[in-house]
Each structure stands twice: as C-alpha cells, then as structure tokens.
C-alpha cells in the first residue's frame, strides 16, 4: 500500500516563471536517467527482491523517495510555466524575447498537459519502461543503480548551471545531495553483498569454472595506439593480459544462402565482390603449437616429431610456448582441450 503526503520532500518554488527552462527540466523527470526511471527501477527491484530485510527495505525506501522527486520536479515545472503564453501567439511572437521563449517552450506542456509536466524528456520523447534495470540479481542491479544516480547527478549538475533562478537552484542543490548519497549507499550495499557472502565481485558468481578460461583474462588490443596497455589493469600480480596483436579465432562471418522467395542479392560462387573469401590462417612449418595430449599440456614446433616441452597446467605450457615462439619469431597457436584453436599470436619478425 502506498500513501500520499500533501507536502513536498523539499521546496520547489522558482522565483519567476521560465517556460524555456521548464522544458529543460523535463529531462530530470522523463529522461533515460530521470526520476521516473529510478522510481520504477527501484520499485521493481524491491517488488522482485527475494530476501526480506535490509536490502529490500533500502530499495523500497529509495524507490519511495524517488516518487517524491518526480513530484517536486513536476510541481516546479508547473510553477515555471505559470503565465506561459497559451493564446495570441502571433502577437506575442512579435516581441523577440517572447518569440524566443515561445520557440523554446515544450508545446506539449501547453497543448497536452495544460501548463504542467509530461512524462517525457526535454525533447518530448516519452518515458520508456525499457530504461529500467531490475534483474533480481542484487549485485548487477546495485551497479546499475550507482550508474543511474551518477548520470542523474551529472545531468542535474548541468541543469544547475543553466539557470540563475535562486528558487530553482535551491531545489537542485537538494537533488544533487540526494544523488550523492544514493550513489554512496549503492556502492556500500555492493560491498555489503560481498561481505555477507551473497555475491562475489563478478555477476553472477557462477559458471566461472565452466566459462572458457582462455578468454577470461585478456584485453584485446583492437584500437590504434599502445596506450590501452598502460593502465594498472595490465601490470602487477593480478594483471589482465593485454593481447597486443590479437587474431580472429573464427572463420569468415558469411551469412547462409538466402531463401529464393526473399529476393536477396546473391551469387552462389561469391562472384561480383571482386575477391574470394580469405582462408583462415594455416599453421606454417616452424610455428609453435600448445595443445593437450595424453593428459599433459605440450608445446611442439610444427614439422618436428616430438614435443619441445610439456607442462602440468595449460598456463605453464602456454607461457613456455609463447617464449619459444617469441625467440623463433613465429606464430604461437594455443588449442583448447578439444583441439579447436583458441588463440593465435604472431611474433613474426
Ligand atoms: Fe532522485
Ligand atoms: Fe536517487
């Protein structure tokens, strides 16, 4: 059950009307990171929360507060629109200042809502339920909440600089403060979920053994320049490996032959595109392969009849294979247990 109190959480009184600014404020009501979004996001997270107690209560406390923020903003918008032109626009528009105001005003705030706020953003795009995140996984959701409050505070800060009205600024100061504490609380709640043993630092903390271990600790260097390698993430004990020269692991991504009834432009032999599909890179004589056989991880130079080295773990063998390939200036191919190529690195000179 929800109850309504006839008092605003904080005062929402502009010193004077400003229909142009009323439109801008719509972003904080019905924008992707507006108060309607956090309201609905927290309400659905709370309704879907499967543990009674501190987490659910924190979510519902905040959800209910956010309804009050929608109310404050809607009230502010209505007051900013007080006296906004509703008639005789042709005459009013002859005054250049008035024309500017009319030009910048949200027509829906006059035509549709009669001088009040609308559930839309500053460009009139209607609020959308797909803006919200409520997954039932509290770690994933709390991270989304901290991000939503950060975006909300960012936009509030920008809007704070777009007005000189002391009354509007007064309310936005309060909103900024609430966005600050909401960010803090969600970040603290994330730590608490971990401390309580409910979640770890990856969401979800399941299937970590099943996921492809070859690919859970590498950053693919896929944009120009070497700077992505300069963060602390790629140094130290627990570094994420930076793949300087990553190669595609799959074949060409060609779509299948279309059904004739779809009239898709198609040529069976690929003619007309001026080229033939590239063959996936083959292993050349002298390249180094890391693979699994007879219960061990091995490194072998292509063309040699015997393994150069073996290792107890894949990581150990892979590191040795990488060294060998670097020294020889050849490609290093790492296979999964099932023999499929998982990684390929070029160390060619
Ligand atoms: Fe809020
Ligand atoms: Fe908030």
Descriptive account of the structure:
By secondary structure, the protein is of the alpha/beta class. It folds into three domains: 19-195, Ferritin (Up-down Bundle); 213-261, no CATH class; 262-349, no CATH class. Helices cover 40% and strands 9% of the residues. The chain has nine helices and seven strands; from the N terminus they run ααααααααβββββαββ. The chain has helices spanning 19-30, 35-47, 54-80, 89-92, 96-104, 107-111, 138-160, 166-195, 314-328, and strands spanning 218-220, 241-243, 288-293, 296-301, 309-311, 331-335, 341-346. It has a five-stranded mixed beta sheet with strand order 5-4-3-6-7, covered by helices on one side. A hairpin with a 2-residue loop joins strand 3 (288-293) and strand 4 (296-301). The longest helix has 30 residues, at 166-195. Mean pLDDT is 90; it is low at 275-280. It binds fe (ii) ion (2 copies). The site of one fe (ii) ion has 5 residues, from helix 2 and helix 3.
- Computed Rg: 30 Å
Give the averaged pLDDT, no decimals: 90
Instruction: Compute the number of structural domains.
Output: 3
What name is given to the CATH topology of the largest domain?
Answer: Ferritin
Q: Unreliable stretches, pLDDT < 50, 5 or more residues?
A: 275-280
CATH class of the largest domain: Mainly Alpha
Number of strands: 7
Strand content: 5-15%
**What is the straight-line distance between the termini?**
71 Å
Q: What hetero molecules are in the model?
A: fe (ii) ion
């Amino acid at each position: 059950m929800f109850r309504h109190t006839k008092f605003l959480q904080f005062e929402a009184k502009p010193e004077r009307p400003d229909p142009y600014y009323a439109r801008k404020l719509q972003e904080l009501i019905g924008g992707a990171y507006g108060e309607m979004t956090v309201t609905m996001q927290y309400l659905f997270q709370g309704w879907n929360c499967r543990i009674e107690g501190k987490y659910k209560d924190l979510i519902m406390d905040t959800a209910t507060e956010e309804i009050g923020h929608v109310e404050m903003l809607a009230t502010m918008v209505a007051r900013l629109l007080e006296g906004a032109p509703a008639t005789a626009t042709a005459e009013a528009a002859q005054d250049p200042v008035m024309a500017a105001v009319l030009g910048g005003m949200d027509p829906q705030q006059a035509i549709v809502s009669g001088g009040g706020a609308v559930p839309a953003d500053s460009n009139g795009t209607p609020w959308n339920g797909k803006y919200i995140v409520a997954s039932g996984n509290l770690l994933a959701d709390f991270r989304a909440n901290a991000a939503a409050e950060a975006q909300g505070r960012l936009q509030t800060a920008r809007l704070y600089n777009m007005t000189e009205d002391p009354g509007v600024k007064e309310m936005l100061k309060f909103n900024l403060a609430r966005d600050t504490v909401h960010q803090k609380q969600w970040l603290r709640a994330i730590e608490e979920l971990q401390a309580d043993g409910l979640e770890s630092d990856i969401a979800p903390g399941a299937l970590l053994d099943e996921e492809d271990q070859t690919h859970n600790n590498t950053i693919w260097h896929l944009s120009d320049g070497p700077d992505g390698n300069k963060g602390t993430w790629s140094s130290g004990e627990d570094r994420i490996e930076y793949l300087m020269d990553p190669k595609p692991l799959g074949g060409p991504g060609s779509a299948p032959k279309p059904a004739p009834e779809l009239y898709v432009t198609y040529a069976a032999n690929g003619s007309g595109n001026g080229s033939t599909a590239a063959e996936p890179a083959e292993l050349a004589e002298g390249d180094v392969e890391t693979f699994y056989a007879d219960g061990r991880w091995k490194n072998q130079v292509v063309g040699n009849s015997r393994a150069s080295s073996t290792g107890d773990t894949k990581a150990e063998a892979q590191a040795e294979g990488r060294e060998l390939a670097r020294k020889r200036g050849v490609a290093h191919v790492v296979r999964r247990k099932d023999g499929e190529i998982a990684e390929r690195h070029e160390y060619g000179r």
